[in-house]
Write a structure and sequence with these properties.
With 166 residues, the protein is α+β, with helices and mostly antiparallel strands. 34% of the residues lie in helices and 22% in strands. The strands form two sheets. It has a four-stranded antiparallel beta sheet with strand order 4-5-3-6. Strands 1-2 form a two-stranded antiparallel sheet. The chain is elongated and about 55 Å long. The mean pLDDT is 91.
Length: 166
């Protein structure tokens, strides 16, 4: 057992079928009430809430979010950046992490294997906004050697539910 950012990670805790059902239901509707959740899994409210809290405490449930329509909030462009950094040295990786964390337009960033070190998901208002992001911000980050832009044309699938089986 160890503590990871306030979450108790107990490697011996394994969710049972009821816990998995709770995870599935909360992934699909994070606003479901505890009463509705308890009705769906066939338990009373108190044990249901206890299970949810246990799943949160052990890191299975990290947070609850609203899915926002990027176009309706004025962010009509979504793209990915494949990023090569100057080196793979620990200090350079830490610098890149700090730099990319400071960019609000970057909503996700992953360390990858292969030709590029990172892939980042970015949003901008329009093409001009994307150009400003790339030329005024991304290209000026000292840890970046080069990057490749992958603009999205349309969304084929945007599913935030993990395929957890019972």
């Amino acid at each position: 057992m160890f503590n990871l950012a306030g979450i108790i990670v107990n490697m011996s805790f394994q969710p049972d079928k009821t816990d998995i059902k709770i995870i599935q239901l909360l992934q699909r509707n994070g606003r479901i009430t505890n009463i509705q959740l308890s009705n769906e899994i066939g338990l009373s409210a108190a044990p249901t809430l206890e299970r949810v809290r246990k799943l949160e405490m052990h890191g299975f449930l990290e947070s609850y979010h609203a899915k926002v329509n990027n176009e309706l909030v004025g962010l009509g462009i979504m793209a990915y950046l494949l990023i090569k950094t100057e080196s793979g040295k620990h200090a350079d990786m830490q610098a890149f992490t700090r730099e990319v964390d400071s960019l609000d337009e970057v909503t996700e960033c992953y360390f990858t294997g292969g030709e590029y070190n990172y892939i980042a998901k970015v949003y901008a208002k329009d093409r001009d906004g994307l150009a400003r992001l790339l030329y005024d911000k991304v290209s000026k980050l000292p840890s970046i050697h080069s990057f490749k832009l992958l603009p999205t044309v349309s969304i084929i699938k945007d599913k935030q539910v993990l395929p957890i089986a019972l």
